[in-house]
């Protein structure tokens, strides 16, 4: 099956109002900037998709990437580990104004919740948040004399991720730290949309190097020479 789409706009027609959207990236590493901004431009033209729940390690930085989504008014709720950044104005202003909700999740718990969603594990226990506000209202059990908090799996309607290399069947590799959350998110979403720096024919990737198998990928768009969030911030991108 050929999963290649001609443009990001075509691929993103799967994203609709009120959906939950996982977005790969650890800060700027692995952030699918072109995909995010194509979605922002669609929102500016049509007013859709809005009221999104965005799941990411961060809540945006400066005025690019997820911060651009927040500034545009697309995001109703953030699920993340780090709502603060070097320039968190987009999220902070919306949050203080009561225009965006926050679910704060410890970083390791966030990764495990996403992994559990992809693996079909409804819940698991972790000691990470015990005794904090994050644990309030959640079941607690004791294992080997230590209290653990129950956390639920985390799934999404759509995952937007960035790969280094893809083949037409959806097999993916990633560049160094850009791998981060993306393989887990591809497994935990109903529809996975990928921007890849280069697309090759099936067999063009050594099977031993495949990180995300094509079964978890639905749509691919080739985006050569992708932009890097940190570089855009240094240049003062708006």
Shape descriptor? globular
Q: How many domains make up the coordinates?
A: 1
The main sheet comes to: 8 strands, mixed
Number of strands: 11
* pLDDT averaged over residues: 96
Describe the structure.
The chain is globular, with a radius of gyration of 18 Å. With 238 residues, the chain is an alpha/beta fold. It has one domain (8-112, 155-234): Glutaconate Coenzyme A-transferase. The chain is 25% helix and 26% strand. The chain has helices at residues 8-11, 33-46, 66-72, 89-96, 107-119, 182-188, 229-234; strands at residues 20-23, 52-55, 75-80, 101-104, 123-126, 140-143, 146-152, 156-167, 172-173, 189-200, 219-222. Strands 1, 2, 3, 4, 8, 9, 10 and 11 form an eight-stranded mixed β-sheet that branches. Strands 5-7-6 form a three-stranded antiparallel β-sheet.
Any descriptors?
about 240 residues; alpha/beta; Glutaconate Coenzyme A-transferase; about 25% strand; 7 helices
Lay out the secondary structure.
Blueprint: H1 8-11, E1 20-23, H2 33-46, E2 52-55, H3 66-72, E3 75-80, H4 89-96, E4 101-104, H5 107-119, E5 123-126, E6 140-143, E7 146-152, E8 156-167, E9 172-173, H6 182-188, E10 189-200, E11 219-222, H7 229-234
